[in-house]
Design brief:
The complex is a heterodimer of chains A (about 450) and B (about 90). With about 450 residues, chain A is an alpha/beta fold. Chain A has helices spanning about 5-15, 40-50, 55-65, 80-85, 95-105, 125-140, 160-175, 220-230, 235-265, 285-295, 305-320, 340-345, 355-360, 380-395, 435-440; strands at about 20-30, 70-80, 110-120, 145-150, 155-160, 185-190, 210-220, 270-275, 365-375, 400-405, 415, 425, 445. Chain A has two domains: about 25-190, Anaerobic Ribonucleotide-triphosphate Reductase Large Chain, CATH 3.20.70; about 220-450, Anaerobic Ribonucleotide-triphosphate Reductase Large Chain (Alpha-Beta Barrel). In chain A, helix 2 (about 40-50) packs parallel to helix 5 (about 95-105), helix 8 packs antiparallel against helix 9 and helix 9 (about 235-265) crosses helix 11 (about 305-320). The longest helix of chain A has 30 residues, at about 235-265. Chain B is α+β, with helices and mostly antiparallel strands. Chain B has helices at about 15-25, 55-70, 80-85, and strands spanning about 1-10, 30-40, 40-50, 75-80. Classes of the chains: A alpha/beta (about 450), B alpha+beta (about 90).
């Protein structure tokens, strides 16, 4: 029998606390689209995406209405395009990006991810061409997202790729300077990238995944914050962790339900639920506010890393029992521009990039949606990527960098991307130069943690 | 197929009757009703069987929402599975 309090709690979580399923992402393998002729290959890609995902948006909207669960985004992830380029003769990677953009728009999804390459151990055919084409591809498309995996615990860090990516991020910002430097907001540089991640901009469909599957990314920082605000007064931290676990369980069950329904209706296997607390710029739907609810004056002050470690762990423990397949990034996200509490903390000076870097050691992802001064040299961006990758490599976890150089702007100003991407104040970054370190190139060898067998 | 209708808002005369008549008009059987006043807000929950409903689910949702608007309350109808998933192990 249903309990009135339970029903009203669910309604309140959805209507007042921004609880939603952030994304239903269909992973599609493009391996069978490879063709020596790049134009034919693009035609096959267009056909496969528009066939497989033809009913994705309609079914998601139907489930959303019937079950009263907001599903904010519908997305597609595809096989890293560099792997497809490898099979073509003289391909133009930008043509592939335009094909993805057109196919994704045709089926009505919000984003398509997979303009990607996995180069943690070195470059193979197609990788360098794809990386060099990223700025143009992101400038000429609207909803294509790109990601590059430059390191892993098993392989170490490809510092040649790191050096390239600093330049690519800068160039992507320069050629979209007239559009709030939107280019690099759609580009993630990963270490230990998950192959079944439903969240953008880092989603791609890994080579070990099936032909087609459905992933779900849940959200819900607003619901966790509200639960803490309502019930955590006087609680010790272990009790706080229990409260977060209970809330995370409910949030994840909602995601699992949506995943099962989508999988059944579309006739494709269910992949994973990504147990992430993904914030939005909406007031209250903020991971920073959850940390502040635990007792911090402002996110970024001493204690932030500890509070985030507790939150991240409790979210996973609560979520893992609620789902039969957990994957993706699964943890708390700490993007700056997408989280009203993080924006406020950055604006008032309590949150700096160095603190964010420490926070990334204990939660999912990394330096995410951070706006940096427009005159930041490429080698500084590369070195920031290397620092994050080192944290990921040594701790056997995913880390990533998505920074946006605000071309022509300085500290004190801000970039406004709109929608889920939000807006961000320009954050200070060290002016001292790592140029010689980055110019050395080569590899950072895999750590001892890689030798597990 | 079970659905849950929730009505939240200011208490006025005839809310239950209005929602129940929309159900009756479309062969929707009301199986359970609970109502309470929470912090001055009227909250009513109806568990209904929509398997013999004469109109499509989204049409019934629309009719119920319209009935709610008429009475100045918020009416929502969703499938029951959501609540089972979130609150039952």
């Amino acid at each position: 029998m249903l309990n009135t309090t339970d029903i009203l709690e669910t309604i309140r979580m959805i209507t007042d606390e921004n609880l939603d399923v952030r994304t239903v992402t269909m992973g599609i393998s493009l391996l069978d689209c490879v063709d020596e002729d790049p134009h034919k290959c693009c035609e096959k890609i267009y056909k496969k995406i528009t066939t497989k995902a033809a009913n994705l948006v309609a079914e998601a909207e139907n489930i959303s209405n019937t079950y009263g669960i907001p599903i904010v985004n519908k997305r597609i992830s595809v096989t890293p395009i560099a792997m497809i380029l490898a099979g073509c003769k003289n391909p133009d990677p930008v043509e592939f990006a335009l094909t993805l953009d057109a196919a994704a728009k045709k089926v009505g999804v919000n984003f398509v991810g997979g303009f990607s390459a996995l180069v943690q151990k070195g470059f193979s055919a197609g990788d360098i061409a794809l990386i060099n084409a990223i700025p143009e591809a992101l400038a000429k498309t609207d909803i294509v997202c790109s990601s590059i995996n430059i390191g892993s615990t098993k392989a170490g860090i490809n510092m040649d790729a790191v050096a390239m990516m600093g330049k690519v991020v800068r160039k992507a910002a320069e050629i979209t300077a007239d559009r709030n430097c939107i280019g690099p907001a759609k580009l993630v540089v990963f270490c230990n990238a998950p192959e079944d991640n439903p969240f953008m901009a880092g989603a791609f469909h890994g080579p070990g995944e099936p032909d087609c599957e459905i992933h779900v990314g849940v959200s819900g920082p607003g619901a966790v914050r509200a639960a803490l605000a309502k019930d955590s007064e006087g609680m010790s931290l272990d009790q706080v962790a229990e409260l977060i676990k209970r809330t995370a369980f409910k949030i994840t069950r909602m995601g699992q339900l949506v995943g099962n329904l989508m999988s059944e209706r579309l006739g494709v296997p269910f992949g994973i639920v990504d147990l992430s607390l993904a914030p939005t710029p909406a007031i209250g739907d903020s991971v920073a506010n959850v940390l502040e609810e635990m007792g911090l004056e402002s996110c970024g002050c001493c204690g932030t890393t500890a509070a985030l470690a507790l939150l991240n762990d409790a979210v996973k423990k609560g979520g893992v029992m609620a789902s039969n397949a957990v994957g993706g990034l699964s943890g708390a996200f700490i993007p700056v521009s997408e989280d009203a509490g993080m924006i406020a903390a950055a604006e008032c000076g309590s949150l700096c990039i160095e603190k964010l870097e420490a926070m990334t050691a204990v939660c999912s992802v990394g330096i995410d949606m951070v706006v940096i001064p427009g005159d930041t040299p490429a080698e500084v961006i590369s070195a920031l990527i290397a620092d994050e990758a080192a944290i990921g490599m040594v701790n056997s976890k995913t880390t990533a960098v998505r920074v946006i150089p605000a071309i022509g702007l300085e500290k004190g100003q801000q970039l406004d991307f709109g929608g889920l991407l939000g807006y961000g104040p320009i954050m200070d970054i060290s002016k001292f130069s790592p140029a010689k370190f980055i110019a050395r190139g080569g590899k950072i060898p895999a750590p001892m943690q890689a030798l597990k067998n | 197929m079970k659905a849950v209708i929730t009505v939240v808002g200011q208490d006025t005369v005839g809310i239950l009757a209005r929602v129940a008549s929309v159900c009756a008009d479309h062969s929707v059987n009301v199986e359970e009703v609970t109502q309470s006043i929470l912090g001055g807000t009227f909250a009513m929950i109806m568990v209904v069987d929509v398997s013999k409903c004469t109109v499509a689910f989204d049409e019934l949702q629309r009719l119920l929402t319209a009935a709610g608007t008429e009475k100045g309350v918020e009416v929502k109808m969703t499938r029951q599975e959501l609540y089972d998933a979130m609150h039952r192990i």
